[in-house]
Amino acid sequence: MEASQPGALTVVDVQTSGVSWAAIVAGAVATAALSLLLFAFGAGIGLSSISPWTGSGVSATTFKIGSGIYLVIVAVMASSVGGYLAARLRTKWTGLHTNEVYFRDTAHGLIAWALATLLSAGVLGSVTTHIVSGGAATASAVIGTANPADLYVDKLFRSDNAPTGSPTANGADTMRSEMSRLWTASFRVADDLNAADRSYVARVVAARTGLSQAEAEKRVSDVIIEAKAAADATRKAAVQLSLWLTVSLLFGAFASCLAAVEGGQLRDGTWNNHILTPRPI
């Protein structure tokens, strides 16, 4: 410890670190835990607002927008608590300029938010995913799981005539497996069937269902269009989720920094009836 002049009231602390890791870790853990709690609560509210029955529950668009807004609210609430704790629990710095203290408080809030984000993504990611996807897992357990490629193969081979004979005996199982593999491989690469595969699939469909070649080709085209539409909808949903996550992270970082500044002010006793009183230098 050293003083600037004999008899001066300002004491400069040259030994205390500018980063209080204990306070930062405490704030980050609080942020991650509160985020998990709010995600669990939001999952329950979200699942109670949807329904498989027509005319019941909220629409898909409303659900997506509501989920995105809730992500932002969770980020702001949890990050505010964590940033506040990260600054409020730190050791008081003495002899620092007011601007430097503001910077350190803001940095504590930002670091606490960053650590909480990494903690949530790494350690708590699987728990959060399990909670959010609990409804989907339950529904899958009830109705069973299916490969999307098998569903499209079913639509290709659908026939108005009742099936006759043993599927294994007439080679239908082998044919379906081949079509499923072909469909999966082609759509994984180009989201479509190339000309040769499309012609082959149409011939198989015509032979299996009794349709004419033209009708079989039309059915193949219709199913491909449906598959592309489903893939595009999935892509758009992923884009929207990514954008909402980005917005929530940005709002969370800002809220954490702002709350850390207020927590530092309260820690140092410079908020008097909500009027900012400059710290002594």
Termini separation (Å)?
15 Å
Domain module tally: 2
In N-to-C order, the SSE pattern is EEHHHHHHHHHEE
Oligomer: single chain
Fraction of residues in helix:
over 70%
Shape: elongated
Total helical elements:
9
Kindly provide the radius of gyration, computed on alpha-carbon positions and rounded to a whole number of angstroms.
30 Å
- Structural class estimated from helices and strands: mainly alpha
Note the beta-strand portion. under 5%
**Spatial arrangement of strands, main beta sheet:** 1-2
Low-confidence residue ranges:
1-14, 135-145, 164-170
Kindly state the mean pLDDT as a whole number?
Answer: 76
Taking the sheet with the most strands, its summary is: 2 strands, antiparallel
Please explain how this structure is put together.
α3 (98-122) packs antiparallel against α9 (213-268). The chain folds into two domains: 2-144 and 238-276, no CATH class; 148-231, no CATH class. A hairpin with a 2-residue loop joins β3 and β4 (275-276). It is 72% helix and 3% strand. The longest helix is centred in the C-terminal third of the chain and has 56 residues, at 213-268. With 281 residues, it is mainly alpha-helical. A two-stranded antiparallel sheet has the order 1-2. It starts with a strand and ends in a 5-residue tail after the last strand. The protein contains nine helices and four strands.
